[in-house]
């Protein structure tokens, strides 16, 4: 038993170390150049995808792109507390939930109209609606394995991260154009920008009040990751033609629920939750580096215009819907 465990560790270590090194390099570049760390990790991994051909590295890269990914998603639960959701007020919570649900449905419908799969529309819609790259990785983890799943995931991460960065620049200007006050601007930014880091950057560029509300609203969207991922599991359990059915409640999703409950009802020291969420980010960046290592750059570069139009349309839909709803909750 012990010898078998040691053998598994030694087999997976080289690929894991490669993925971790790329992830750390991406974090360093992100801190010094201001671009999203996940995007750097994915692009660096894709540039070094030849390493995946090495039989010594392959098992560890596979392990990192699946198991380490699930650990990172589970630990996202420590970002969320029920008190944060209640603090927003039910009108705002309802608006955010409407934005998330409608954007996913919009993505599925538009994908079908453009001749793409509803699964791809759901994946991109979920990424845009919830929390960008993290949501894309979580949804991808429960989708049935297919020949295009990794390619679709990579495109979604690149697309949603790029759009999130553009939104960080444009949405404060849009808030000013529509005459939103600081509270309204914060809710708008938190309910629409895809990635957490860009939400924080855009919100606090307006004012401390806008930044606080933007962050709180964003956490509400992250909290919806659980029901959305569970919805994907139920849909594909009823679609046997899509491949092997995912388990009804994967262990990483059960852990996510447990960590949300702990963070909501157990008075954990702030340093503990900060370190756990930081560790979650390291896991996600490392796993996306592994996904990049497994990718075929040529296939990703030939996705065509339709997927780009789909993600832009989803982003515009979400922003337009929230702008329309904001006067109703004021």
Automatic annotation (TrEMBL):
Domain of life: Bacteria
Membrane topology: Multi-pass membrane protein
Chief location bin: membrane
Record-linked InterPro entries: UPF0324_pro
Membrane spanning stretches: 12-29, 35-52, 64-82, 88-111, 123-142, 154-174, 219-236, 248-266, 278-297, 309-329
Pfam families on file: Cons_hypoth698
Any one cellular-component term (Gene Ontology): plasma membrane
Family statement: Belongs to the UPF0324 family.
Protein name as it appears in the record: Conserved hypothetical integral membrane protein
Organism: Kordiimonas lacus
Lineage: Bacteria, Pseudomonadati, Pseudomonadota, Alphaproteobacteria, Kordiimonadales
